[in-house]
Amino acid sequence: MFRIQLFVFFLYVWPFSARSEDGSRLWLRYDPVSDVVAQRRTVQVNQKHETALLAQHELNTYWRGTSIQLNVDQKEAKLKEGYRISFSAGAIRVTAARPVGLLYAAYHLLRLQETVGEIDPLPIEEIPSYDIRILNHWDNLDGSIERGYAGRSLWKWTELPDKISPRYTEYARANASIGINATVLNNVNASPYILNTAYLEKVRALADIFRPYGIRVYLSVNFSSPVILDGLKDADPSRLEVQDWWKKKVKEVYKLVPDFGGFLVKANSEGQPGPQDYGRTHAEGANMLADALKPFGGIVMWRAFVYSPTSEDRAKQAYLEFVPLDKAFRDNVIVQIKNGPIDFQPREPFNPLFGAMQHTSQMVEFQITQEYLGFSNHLAYLAPLFKETLDSDTYGRGAGSTVAKVTDGTWHPKRVSAIAAVANIGEDRNWTGHDFAQANWYAFGRLAWRHELSSEQIAEEWIKLTFHTDETFIRSTKEIMMPSREAVVNYMMPLGLHHIFAFDHHYGPEPWGDRKGGRADWMPWYYHNADSIGIGFNRTDTGSDAAGQYHAPIAEIYGDRTLCPENLLLWFHHVPWDYRMRSGRTLWEELCEHYDRGVKQTRRFQESWDRLEHHVDQPRFLAVQSKLKIQAKDAMWWKDACLLYFQTFCKKPIPFHIERPI
Ligand code: GCW
């Protein structure tokens, strides 16, 4: 039997001596092996490819087990970027179709080494769920990050390409270790200047660093680039001159970055330019770029996050614009769709576009950065949110058409599949501001690799890698992480409430927010509709009928107040304050209950964490402790603000057992 037990000794005797420090090492806390270990085993590779050599190097440096043979075998094409690991008498054999598969296998083995006392010698075969597993950075060229809460951008545009920060490599390695293979460097609110030759040289420098780690670079582009950069009279995609401009630009990009991935585009959305400025459709705009990229194997990720201040319910607009275009997109266009129909709220139903477009490739966009979940101050483990969307059944092709299946290539096996998330990474020493926000970067990577993994499995892995394998610590930390997203929902906007955030910055509560002359769809009242009768957005057939955009039976379930899941009730229904909930409480009492529960949960998180003081290194213990304090205070702020405000409509007392607002 194959065993790796050596490290167990270290972990149990000195629980944190080996790993005690701040969060800068993320989940990559392996220590180099001693010379003795290195001499008793070999790590061999059958190819001199830089990525294969990197796999060899990682194992040589950190692997405490037996000898390993790494083989690239092109006959194994079905493995894509995956790998096979087999164990036989005293040796391990890794096979992959591509060199990057060996690198992923190396990290797999190291993960096992760090998390499992004894490795099961059964063969392992891993094939990623998605071809493209991509981070979207909303980083601006001036170094700021839109909705970034972990400091300024990692990318030092003023220093590149001459000065190379060591963090570029660390970033690439961290991503590779969880299977992320692509990155969009710049904000979707894109500066056209990213396509200037001077910037492309900087992009090339980053791409060169990321390449050995299997990471391809993509860019967000501004649809008006030809006008702004080269003075064309417009950017109308039907004009030859505009098409030629893009073709030339794409050629230039590929000359510098031969494995360039493609473009991400936010067009005709929140003031960004787009094809509609010239009376053209999203498909015409996307196809022009797709045609320019096609000869080089590049793709276009065209965002479906579109809405404007019309009389139409914002939640319906993307569907209305995109579904009629279903047959119009080129094969190398993927429509990138936010997980929900509004905007990364603590809870949304899945976006009805998933499964509605039968012919178009679709991908999910999640938000790892916590724009709407307490920035980097609140601990909110997001894997349960990601899973909730991926596991939602769209019924697009009958039962079992989950969002995961609609997007992972099952529907379009011949095209590339992709999944994206907006990064929470910045210059902070611990990368993500909150030490526990690292778990969300980790969880996205792991789910993009394999969407069947459970949130709990991922949490456990992350805890073991990031802290240590002490059972008490794992159990208590999981008890904080697992309910943490639901706690945020409870104290911010339970029962389907949404977008009652303070204007623009989206940190605190402002359900009363009203800016005279401001866009109605940016005012919280638009979403909660509280009045003397009740609260909630009527999206049934007597209201906006957004529920009708879903396939049967979801449309019926969401559209019927008695069938609608209560955690989405006020998303789809305007419900009287006295309405009896399943608990027997009235809606008002239930609302009070949820807000109060959220506050209590945050206090429990504090207590649990305090009890772990002697299980964690001091810097991280104190950092998390103080953030939990902020979270508990904020939770109370949310509860008091929302309950006192909604009380002005319902005019009912707050039940006795609920903590009084202060
Ligand atoms: O969530 C909203 C954000 C904007 C963002 C936009 C988008 C990048 O408030 O900051 O812009 O979504 O996703 O395009």
Give a written overview of the molecule.
Helix 13 crosses helix 14. The chain has helices at residues 6-13, 35-40, 50-62, 99-115, 166-177, 197-210, 225-230, 240-256, 282-293, 314-322, 383-390, 403-407, 438-449, 455-466, 471-481, 484-492, 524-528, 554-559, 569-572, 587-611, 618-650, and strands at 43-45, 67-72, 83-88, 91-96, 124-126, 132-136, 182-184, 216-220, 262-265, 299-303, 333-338, 361-367, 418-422, 534-535, 575-576. Among the domains are: 6-126, Chitobiase/beta-hexosaminidase domain 2-like (Chitobiase, domain 2), CATH 3.30.379.10; 132-466, Alpha-Beta Barrel (TIM Barrel). Mean pLDDT is 95; it is low at 1-20. By secondary structure, it is an alpha/beta fold. It has an eight-stranded parallel barrel. The protein contains 21 helices and 15 strands. It binds 4-O-methyl-beta-D-glucopyranuronic acid. 4-O-methyl-beta-D-glucopyranuronic acid (GCW) binds at residues 138, 146-147, 188-189, 266, 270, 305, 343-344, 371. 4-O-methyl-beta-D-glucopyranuronic acid binds at residues 138, 146-147, 188-189, 266, 270, 305, 343-344, 371. Residues 119-431 form the Glycosyl hydrolase family 67 catalytic domain. Belongs to the glycosyl hydrolase 67 family. Pfam families: Glyco_hydro_67C (PF07477), Glyco_hydro_67M (PF07488). This is Xylan alpha-1,2-glucuronidase.
